[in-house]
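tool_call predict_complex ligand=zinc ion
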Amino acid sequence: MIYYDCHLHSNFSGDSDTPPEEQIKKALSMGLHGICFTDHHDYDVVSDIDFELDIPAYMEEISRLKELYEGKIEILTGIELGIQLHIGDYLKKLVDTYPFDLVIGSMHFIDGLDPYYDQYFTLHGKNAYRRFFEKTLERIENVKCYDTLGHLDYVIRYGAAHGLTYSYSEYSDVIDAILKRLISDGKAPEINSGGLARGLSQPNPGKEVILRYRELGGEVVTIGSDAHTPAEMGFRFEECAELLRNCGFEYYGVYKKRIPVMYRL
Ligand SMILES: [Zn+2]
Ligand SMILES: [Zn+2]
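tool_result ok
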């Protein structure tokens, strides 16, 4: 079983209205042993939603809750950083400044556009998926201040609505390069069950990518639901655990003070 959810949002994120304590109460009711808050921080992007995190206020509140719930549930403090090439130095400084347990590196904006919105697909058409993976590779080759790569194939959550079909084999050249880069840099991919919550048949990424990561020698994965509300917490985690076991994994990683602690699946 999976007793930690390591990708969660609260109302410190511009796209969630959930007070952090509600997430904690939900986790307790589900019998989880721990959760890691990973609120959004996408710096220097143009969006209707404010994705910049008030980091000092966030750190203070999570640390207050951590104390309040000590002995009941383990509360970890993470962040979901929007990685972009031109802000690499800024991100490194930020990560060095605050005592995060986990830093998720995510690609939310490509060419200034979030694939959540139509414009990204209008701009890139049939090349939308390849563009996303190529930019991901370019960024992780240059920006290293993260622990786990969030929802590696985030873009496929939204492509179907634009008539695109996804298959790993079509992009295996660039996805394999991403996986090899993660392994050589000592980073982990995240298994994000938010894809399942959004109607995909698999988490982000799915079985073929997880298997390939294993085949290439990958050992650490993190697991998160990407829940923006309590209802999404731990979403279909049993299925994710089974998928990982079928791909040859016996453990998943929970980052504490930026170091993975391994728990049995
Ligand atoms: Zn994300
Ligand atoms: Zn997220």
